[in-house]
């Protein structure tokens, strides 16, 4: 372990919400902490705010009063950069402007010792560029905390082009000593989380723009079927539409307008209208005491069939067969050599139920209702269905009634390749494979980052292994045929993973 010794002071430059959070983390870990902000008086106010948070933790029984007193005694607000001399680590959390950060670190080089570790908390700028004007860029590393820093366990440790391995390792070990879960990342646009997470927002926005489903329904399906903690529309309202759109645009521009990262016009219009989410009282949803809560589209009760016929191996969805039997519905086995591995379920009315893939149900030879991918069909409380145009009202109701008999609420949406959960998960898996292949991070670190940084129910690579790279690649290939932009073309890394599966 090369973690910073607890006797070594930690400086935090930038006394906003993030700076205060980082200061609290270092303080609770046992370091002396010095807070500085260029705005006169702000460091003192921030120090008081940190102390007040510690008081609340004492009231809740999470911090011992003696520990609180000791921590408060180690916290100092300083009036100028000269007060940071003697610190072993300086973490910068100032405005996201490259020239501001570069000038700050240049000034710090004239204040701190040569062995002082310098860290930027940037979420969107290149660590390499931040260090680019330094005399000794090797000691600057990215330490990207997630908000709120005291609560979120993940820290991305980002090595710029010039970052020395000893500096990155020391930053990693220090974050671990502070009780965080650090992951190592290359200096790539978005690092790990903001790069790999883009499809979670982008695919929901695409579904909305196609008028396939409304925001409340998309959010509900991703939560209650996909297992995500929050839906993308409610999450971006919480983050701030301007913040989320700016990150998306920054990553897109950094990747030279790669279509996989293309921003949403619908979100741009929301930002232009200043409907930024919770902080302005309106975003995708309205907020306030009198604001009605948006409800997902949910089907009225319908009768379930007495029996179904199952064809194929029902790969990925075998538990549905168990649930159907447990609901008292008779399951018969049918033979059809054309049935895919993912299988079909035929209802008495003749309609076929099929797992969502990269094609729309209208392309099927028979009346078909697609059902969306679920994290776990047993625990899912909602399922989305997409009927083809040839499905009658009676057949539609029969499909709805079947899933309702399994204890699920049902949302019927329009036709779109990959529906909602399936397309989102497939794109997340593809982005994760691509990130590993390009040396952004290890597979384990990517899965850890996505679980802890954005609370995904599973790491995308682990999820992809269960679905199989072959199925994910086939689904995206089909989607790429529907959308001829290259956005959905499977990455070479995903294609290689699928090929390895076939030859295993």
List keywords for this structure.
19 helices; alpha/beta; Rossmann fold; elongated; N-(1-d-carboxylethyl)-l-norvaline Dehydrogenase, domain 2; Transcription Regulator spoIIAA; 504 residues
CATH topology description of the largest domain:
Rossmann fold
In the CATH hierarchy, what is the architecture of the largest domain at level 2? 3-Layer(aba) Sandwich
Coarse structural class: alpha/beta
Number of strands: 15
Radius of gyration: 26 Å
Could you outline the blueprint of secondary structure elements for this entry?
Layout lengths: L9 E4 L3 H13 L3 E4 L5 H18 L5 H9 L1 E3 L11 E4 L5 H12 L7 E4 L6 H4 L9 E6 L8 E6 L5 H13 L3 E6 L6 H4 L1 H12 L5 H10 L7 H8 L1 H14 L10 H8 L34 E5 L6 H9 L3 E4 L10 E3 L5 E4 L12 E4 L10 E6 L5 H13 L3 E4 L8 H17 L5 H11 L6 H8 L1 H14 L9 H11 L2
Parallel strand pairs: 1-2, 1-4, 2-3, 4-5, 5-6, 7-8, 9-10, 12-13, 14-15
Antiparallel strand pairs: 6-7, 9-11, 11-12, 13-14
Helix pairs in contact: 1-2, 2-3, 8-15, 10-11, 15-17, 15-18, 15-19, 17-18, 18-19
Protein described:
The chain has about 500 residues and is an alpha/beta fold. It has three domains: about 10-185, Rossmann fold (3-Layer(aba) Sandwich); about 200-280, Orthogonal Bundle (N-(1-d-carboxylethyl)-l-norvaline Dehydrogenase, domain 2); about 305-410, Transcription Regulator spoIIAA, CATH 3.30.750. It is built from 19 helices and 15 strands. The strands form two sheets. An eight-stranded mixed beta sheet has the order 3-2-1-4-5-6-7-8. A seven-stranded mixed beta sheet has the order 10-9-11-12-13-14-15, sandwiched between helices. The two termini are about 40 Å apart.
